[in-house]
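Subject: design request, 252 residues
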């Protein structure tokens, strides 16, 4: 049985490409952990080399520039307008992703592509080009069958009688599936005391206790350290041990 590390060249920092469309909060948390590891003399961590956005006005670009990180953008709205096609058009999606791939290839070859609030659905061409290298996060437990994209994860959890919720980091390998192969999940986050009128407060709690801890941990402490591997049938291994469908569990 062959098990392939997601990243194995631990003699150097892992090169990261961030794709983002919004404020870039998760990007900031991943970068903060990078700086912490660098300053403490760490050798095995991820280094954000470039931030790309489909929105030239996305706040994340300004944040990255202030941190002296290279940035670029190909405006998807203008791209599709020039094509005369809606943003959901599959042919247009392939053309746009082809342009993005060519652009990235002229810059560098990333070891990991992090989707930090990237508001474009990827084409299969893109996921195949960076197979087992695209990392995404969802503010809910993706092993739950009731989940649908486009609706608040915490609202769906409450509707289904859940008392806790977890965040999930997964590989984005197949654009036709709801979610990809789970690498890790956060510890349980309590929803006790919250109701449907408390969505903003719930989501903030999930960000603070889940997303902002889990995403940097998976990037730097797991993948960049060569601790995560993938085997047959997309089974995930951490430290040589196969995980279950919920992946590695990050304890508080």
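Subject: RE: design request

Done. Sequence follows.
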């Amino acid at each position: 049985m062959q098990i392939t590390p997601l990243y194995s060249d631990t003699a150097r920092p892992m090169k990261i490409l961030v794709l983002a469309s919004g404020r870039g909060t998760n990007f900031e948390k991943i970068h903060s952990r990078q700086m912490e590891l660098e300053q403490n003399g760490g050798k095995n961590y991820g280094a954000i080399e470039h931030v790309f956005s489909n929105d030239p006005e996305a706040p994340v670009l300004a944040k990255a520039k202030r941190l002296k990180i290279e940035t670029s953008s190909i405006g998807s709205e203008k791209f599709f307008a020039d094509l005369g096609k809606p943003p959901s058009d599959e042919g247009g999606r392939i053309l746009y992703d082809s342009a993005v791939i060519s652009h990235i290839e002229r810059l560098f070859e990333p070891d990991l592509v992090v989707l930090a609030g990237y508001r474009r659905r990827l084409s299969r061409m893109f996921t195949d080009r960076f197979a087992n290298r695209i990392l995404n996060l969802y503010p809910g437990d993706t092993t739950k069958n009731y989940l649908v994209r486009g609706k608040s994860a915490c609202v769906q959890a409450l509707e289904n009688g859940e008392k806790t919720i977890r965040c999930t980091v997964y590989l984005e390998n197949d654009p036709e599936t709801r979610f990809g192969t789970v690498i890790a999940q956060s510890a349980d986050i309590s929803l006790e005391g919250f109701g449907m009128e408390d969505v903003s407060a719930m989501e903030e709690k999930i960000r603070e206790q889940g997303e902002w801890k889990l995403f940097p941990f998976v990037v730097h402490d797991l993948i960049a350290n060569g601790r995560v591997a993938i085997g047959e049938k997309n089974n995930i291994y951490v430290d040589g041990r196969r995980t279950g469908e919920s992946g590695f569990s990050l304890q508080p």
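The chain has a mean pLDDT of 94.
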